[in-house]
Amino acid sequence: MRNKLIVGNWKMHGSRPANAELLSGILAARPFAADVAVCVPFPYLFEAAATLAASEIRWGAQDCSAHDQGAYTGEVSAQMLAECGCRYALVGHSERRAYHHESDALVAEKAKLLLARGVTPIVCVGETLAERDAGQTEDVVKRQLSVVIHALAHCASEIVVAYEPVWAIGTGRTATPEQAQQVHAVLRAQLQAATGHGERMKILYGGSVKADNAATLFAMPDIDGGLIGGASLKAADFVAICRAAA
Ligand code: PEP
Fold this sequence. Notes:
Elements: E1 5-9, H1 16-28, E2 35-39, H2 45-52, E3 58-61, H3 78-83, E4 88-91, H4 94-99, H5 104-116, E5 120-125, H6 129-133, H7 137-152, E6 160-163, H8 177-195, E7 203-206, H9 211-218, E8 225-228, H10 235-244
Parallel strand pairs: 1-2, 1-8, 2-3, 3-4, 4-5, 5-6, 6-7, 7-8
Helix pairs in contact: 1-10, 5-7, 7-8, 9-10
Phosphoenolpyruvate binds near residues 169 and 231.
């Protein structure tokens, strides 16, 4: 049986006082039945580590470099994330694909470097509204995932996948549980065929998950938890979502 996983994606939000309040609110609400993690901006990683280290809440980053080390000004390597104690790092978030033109191959390279350093990549895939309207949803997400699976070869079963329809991120428009389940089932079949371990791998749903829609999404058989953006910024909202993943 797969334990649920809830991951907060703070994006480029936060401040030291706001983070302290948010993390102490999450810590005070423990224990959770689900595994819980927060992916914070790079400068806050050490402070998140210090605050969370004695708890079972994990922390992670929102991206990493596709290079191991070297003259790449502004980049942060997988090794540095490992040194910060990161359990997870997001790769291929749709905002990185859209604003930084990240390709499937680049996302795969990042995932590879993370795994080599013992950090679990949360590989985000998802279709745009135009792609959904054109009936291309399954082709798009399968293509995005297959590039990662091929690059990682026998390590592919170590990733977490997040299905995030681009049209649902930050828009208040959520995929219905049935729409999300349909895509998750396709992704799980793909993972199973490629790795033989699809049944134990986690596939999260992301896109306007809130306290009031979380439970029905998480009740679907192939939805193993959520990647939560906006609603991860207030302790009460995030805690309610974590509790919905019982
Ligand atoms: C995200 O940023 O990954 C996300 C799902 O955002 P939101 O929950 O705000 O739609």
